[in-house]
Amino acid sequence: MERLKAMIPEGRITLVMYVRNAASFLRSYTNQMKKHPMPAMIEEDSFAYTGQDSWLLDFDARLSSFRSVFGAQNVIALDYEQELKRAGSVIPSFLHVLGVASHFRPQDRERFFLNRTPSVWKLRRSRLGQLRRRRCQRVWRRLLI
Prior knowledge:
Layout: H1 2-7, E1 15-19, H2 22-33, H3 59-70, E2 75-79, H4 80-87, H5 91-98, H6 106-112, H7 118-144
Parallel strand pairs: 1-2
């Protein structure tokens, strides 16, 4: 962490950490890690270790480390589930921390910032692919006629 701090000019930084229900976090994190190639051997101190005793689940220790290096005033912890209930996404609260929330209209949030399940995105991608193929077919037909 000292290395990270050294990379930031004059140590100016605000860290935002969303603290989540440990079981939900581990399930989500494990699913994300499955999408990437992993080392053959995964040690307990690795970012890729997703056992029930993973250090990643010790949110208090992680926050404490950041606070000791960057200062408690520079570390903000927000409740992930609470933000989802309130706004459907963590993005509005993050925009608020950045000080830019007022630049986004409520309809922007409703349209773009809601968490989506992979099946919804998969459905949308496949539908989008169908539309693109049809459009390409129409263009090719016009060119060939």
